[in-house]
Design goal:
- This protein has about 190 residues and is an alpha+beta fold.
- The protein has three helices and nine strands.
Length: about 190
């Protein structure tokens, strides 16, 4: 997972540069202290670096003394083993946007190891967050709890559609079994 995460960082950075004038907006402000802690992945666009993640996918964020954020991503594989990737996030200079890297610390000076991490939705009480990047190729719905009320999901999906995301591509991150597809709006 770590090698894939390093490769993703490079791919996302190149993609982020290519899509710099895209109209995707991040939230105007992130209170990093409130953002810290455990998040559960509710749904995601399929991606190569999480291809073995079957269930119980979480992200834990912790503020470091240097002002950066430690990122620990974990998931359970089909055989019950845990996959873990440890990285670091930093502010990008634009509110609502961070950059994340899973490369070894000694490579952190290279700009291409940092990938865009844009919080594009954030509940006022920080109960859920939606994360993407300027090219809209990656998307995660995160929540403080292992599930979200259907009204929150419906509202998130509606806003994602308005922002040009294909919600049919989202795959649920089921905490207890195989990942089903998220039903279309007409099936809700």
């Amino acid at each position: 997972m770590l090698r894939a995460a390093v490769a993703l960082c490079g791919a996302l950075m190149v993609q982020g540069l290519a899509s710099a004038d895209d109209d995707l907006q991040s939230v105007p402000v992130i209170d990093l202290a409130r953002y810290m802690g455990q998040w559960h992945e509710i749904a995601r666009y399929p991606n190569q670096f999480q291809s073995e993640c079957l269930r119980n996918t979480t992200a834990h964020y912790g503020l470091l003394p240097n002002g950066r954020v430690q990122v620990i991503n974990r998931c359970e594989r089909d055989d019950g083993s845990i996959d873990e990737a440890v990285g670091e996030a930093r502010r990008s200079g634009v509110p609502g946007r961070l950059e994340v890297s899973f490369a070894p610390q000694w490579l952190s000076w290279l700009p291409w190891v940092w990938a865009p991490y844009w919080v594009i939705e954030l509940a006022p009480d920080y109960r859920y967050a939606v994360v993407s990047e300027p090219g809209r190729e990656y998307l995660w719905i995160l929540a403080r709890q292992a599930s979200l009320p259907i009204d929150d999901e419906r509202d998130i999906f509606s806003r994602l559609t308005e922002q040009g995301f294909d919600t049919a591509k989202l795959r649920r991150s089921n905490p207890t079994g195989p990942i089903p597809t998220i039903p279309s709006e007409s099936n809700r």
